[in-house]
Amino acid sequence: MASGQQWVLVEMVQAFYEAPAYHLILEGILILWIIRLLFSKTYKLHETYKLTEREKEDLIEEWQPDLLVPLISKDHPSLKYNIVSGPPSHKIIVNGKECINFASFNFLGLLDSERVKEKALMSLKKYGVGTCGPRGFYGTFDVHLELENRLAKFMKTEEAIIYSYGFATMASAIPAYSKRGDMIFVDEAACFSIQKGLQASRSFIKYFKHNDMEDLERLLKEQEVEDQKNPRKARVTRKFIVVEGMYINTADICPLPELVKFTNNKFQIL
Amino acid sequence: GNMTESSSTKLLNGDACRRTINGKTASKNGYVKNRCLFQQPQNLYKKPFVESFEETPLLVAVLTYMGYGILTIFGYLRDFLRHWNVEKCHVARERDEQKDFVPLYQDFENFYTRNLYMRIRDNWNRPICSVPGAKMDLVERVTHNYNWTFEHTGKVVKDVINMGSYNYLGFAENTGTCADAAIEVTQKYGVGVGSTRCEMGNLDIHEELEELVARFLGVESSMAFGMGFATNSMNIPALTGKGCLILSDELNHASLVLGARLSGSTIRVFKHNNMQSLEKLLRDAIVHGQPRTHRPWKKILIVVEGIYSMEGSIIRLPEVVALKKHYKAYLYLDEAHSIGALGPNGKGVVDYFGLDPKDVDIMMGTFTKSFGAAGGYIGGKKELIDYLRSHSHSAVYATSMPPPVAQQIITSMKIIMGEDGTTLGADRLRQLSENTNYFRRRLCEMGFIIYGNDDSPVVPLMLYMPAKIGAFGREMVKRNIGTVVVGFPATPIIESRARFCVSAAHTREMLDTALEAISEVGDLLQLKYSRREQPLPSMGWMSEESLLQD
What we know:
The complex is a heterodimer.
Chain A: H1 2-18, H2 21-39, H3 45-49, H4 53-62, E1 91-94, E2 97-100, H5 114-127, E3 140-141, H6 142-154, H7 166-177, E4 183-187, H8 192-201, E5 204-208, H9 213-229, H10 231-236, E6 239-242, H11 256-263, E7 268-269
Parallel strand pairs in A: 4-5, 4-6, 6-7
Antiparallel strand pairs in A: 1-2
Helix pairs in contact in A: 7-8
Chain B: H1 2-9, H2 36-39, E1 51-52, H3 58-83, H4 111-117, E2 127-128, E3 135-142, E4 151-162, H5 177-189, H6 204-217, E5 221-225, H7 228-239, E6 245-249, H8 254-263, E7 266-270, H9 275-288, E8 300-305, H10 317-327, E9 330-334, H11 349-353, E10 362-366, E11 376-380, H12 382-391, H13 393-397, H14 403-417, H15 424-446, E12 452-453, E13 458-462, H16 466-478, E14 481-482, E15 484-486, E16 497-501, H17 508-525, H18 539-549
Parallel strand pairs in B: 4-14, 6-7, 6-8, 8-9, 9-10
Antiparallel strand pairs in B: 1-12, 3-4, 5-11, 10-11, 13-16, 15-16
Helix pairs in contact in B: 3-4, 5-14, 6-14, 7-8, 9-10, 14-15, 15-17, 16-17
């Protein structure tokens, strides 16, 4: 063993003598630099930013928040709601005056249908007014299930689900399917509830011009080109198109047959 | 020295406690540490605040993890069998034409749903076909393929004691003054409104309702919305935005979390009901400002709930209000469960602690739980409500509350306040608090681990092990008692629980029946984990219990 060690030592010493000068000088400089760094004082920049308790208390006292809500002028139109007294049917009594009703969403005139009211009263006498619980905890009534079955049959789909608030339906449905990293193509004139759903889903959003199928086609072709560049990412990105049947903002109908024809079953349409 | 005097004069609200109550003298640099707010919390509370969250026994925790481990292994085995078509697959699949689409659900995301939730799915979404009052009728359903699909047999299980619905004051009824008033209004106004609040949807009933709610809460003005969840998710974005800070409790409800996210503000979370954690966050926020730019925050909003429905704990409101006043933050209080259920007059957690409603900047609540209706409200100063009327998403875009629902709220609120001339409201409030105390006391005596405050009508009973979740729900239904069991992801993974909601409509006999059944099931499933010392009501009971636990 000793001879082995001796042999290695001889090798080392020989290497030392045979090394070129610049190499030794470089190594020497590096070793001196390391020693200097090890023994120099630590970088003290953060200490100058550490605040004393006194300064913290001063900052806390000085800070003034904004008003919780900015003041609204007394003449803002939203503060004067129209008061409706009486049922909102074809004629409606607004602020004491009787008017013809062109403002409520009552397309089929069912708001004051006697049959609907009778059934509603029957159900009120059987179930009371509220459900006192979410769907999961004894808030599912047999009438909910019946409604869902009928809706599914009416819309010719396999199943249906109902929500208690119209606004929340779209705002909850979009984030349920589309997550961060997915792609959504949506019409510019989409309603507010869809916009909130898109915001909550955190996906990539691309807008196409209102009811303009060529614009949509252009966007889709661009997307295909992107996909071919990066096929691995394309395999996990889901893509959706969101359109409304009848737009509340512009009162048009979306061209569904064309849309289905040219997307050709390659996209999921919401 | 002079420095402490000048700093104490700059304080607001006469918090002169700095130098006197502490009894401490100024230290070397003339500064006294301000910790007096939390050294004497007893000064702020008028009654004892008793909350307990007993720790999980170690053996139980180990067994629970083992249980989940075994279930996961079996889950992988079943997935493997399904993949190779040895076992029939019931999972929803895309249509054939869409086979080459990116799948809607990644296989792994649904692992928990497919393999664990499906096994005990029959405990949830149970359909009922009567009023969700103290007793209800369940629709019987059977499954022939291990909970993948259900069939209704056509039979009805009658008179099941309902410990699951949020019916704290018993207003879920189909007879009586509330139902009669709602029927009248339906005949007069119809079923729906068909328009938004700022267009043609503002009925005179809505005006009456809002004025009544403002009087009930003791605030200047209030506004009502059609859905409780949406109240939070649509109004928090109107109040805060970029450059604001939201401090929210760890265990806040999904609606508050969604509202905070949609607003675009920075969100920081403090430990559940922990005032030291909240104070530390407040101090750090004000001192250091916004992240990276260090500009001062525009507003700080503290978001808390009155009663937390999964824990049964009550927020430490006096301390939160003291903190908020000292640090000039705003307070958003979500009283979804506590309105109507706490307090000598039923006016919620502010009433329970005897505080001034004007101290809470934004009081939010729902009408679903104690009032037997649906919808939510926000109450506060007139400027706040005026601003919300013009800027809230719900007021501008969403349909307003249907007339019968609004009338139900009006009638039930008048009953609670006593304005209908009877003592029905006061009786119900007293009955609720008696029922709560009795139920909790008996359950603790039996040896179960119960979380939460002694006064909260929400009673979580710890189950821990995954198999016991399903077993408890099913055994209770066999004994004709409907309960709610909760597991992951609504609770932390090892802390699954059964949650009882005590109601004023429950009579002493119903509670006794329920307690007997719970005790029986507890013995059967070995749920009596508590290691606390029991009080000494009857020696016989106690010695038996201590033998069992040893």
